[in-house]
Amino acid sequence: MDGAKAGNELFLVRNHFYLGNFQECINQVQKIKSASVEKDMFLYRSYIGQKQYGIVLDEVKNSSELYPIRLIAEYFSQQDRKAAIVQQVDDYVEKHRGSMDLAWIVAAGTIYFQEGLYENCLSIAGEDLESLALSIQSLLKLNRVDLAKKTYETMQKTDEDATLTQLALAWIFMEVGGEKLQDAFYIFQEFSDKYTPTVQLLNGQAVCLIGQEKYEEAESTLREALNKDPNNYDTLINLMALSQQQETGWEIPQRYLTQLRENYRDSPFIREYTKKESDFETFAQQYAPSKPLNLEAY
């Protein structure tokens, strides 16, 4: 199959995947009869997006071209092997830097980003739109909005109207804040209207609304996201943030925190939260009185 035809067939597949509409991505893949490694990559990445790791592990063998995608499923489903998988990726990247195929770039980028190794993401990113989008996400995590804007300009020159290019612009607008939050909101809203309001798009809109102090609208948007996926990581974190802004007391955000601990105990947010709890306990013990205070003396 020539590249142009393959690209046209994969247009909707890519769009639905990047917008977080994983089931529709799977549906579109199944309509394509011709064989394609890239098509299969989106198929199995969509199953990973749905947390259907078993399907990937059953169907993708160690000898397959798609083995790197299998590694992503192993990373998310086998908590006790995470460190070993990261080391395996490190070893492969070290040996094949500059000659990695797309599947390995995707796997390494996904795992490094989840680990908070943003410099590593930048070191393996290519010049395709997905790699550039990953670079922008990593740069924003590193508070380098200036470099993220330059990377966006490269995406813009490649394909200004591409879904990933528009999403990248929205991410930058969200980081800039202020009046740009409304521009970011419109980008997410346009995709929701054109395709479907996915959990990913709803969370993007909600973050923009929270930043504009439109808390009631943000809550309604996050409730819609919660109905679609009751245990979504981003939705739970954003609901915690919103609860704090609304000053609803500690009971509601504590409920979301419990869900996060149960479902994402090794996530970056929970790791950081647990570390802060431990640091606070250590700090409190250091400044605790060595003897109980005799309050009756006062």
TrEMBL record:
Entry's Gene Ontology cellular component terms: COPI vesicle coat; Golgi membrane
InterPro entries registered for this protein in UniProt: Coatomer_esu, TPR-like_helical_dom_sf, TPR_rpt
Name of a matching Pfam family: Coatomer_E
Protein source organism: Lutzomyia longipalpis
GO molecular function: structural molecule activity
SMART domains hit by this protein: TPR
Subunit structure as annotated in this protein's UniProt entry: Oligomeric complex that consists of at least the alpha, beta, beta', gamma, delta, epsilon and zeta subunits.
Name of the protein: Coatomer subunit epsilon
UniProt keyword list: Cytoplasm, Cytoplasmic vesicle, ER-Golgi transport, Golgi apparatus, Membrane, Protein transport, TPR repeat, Transport
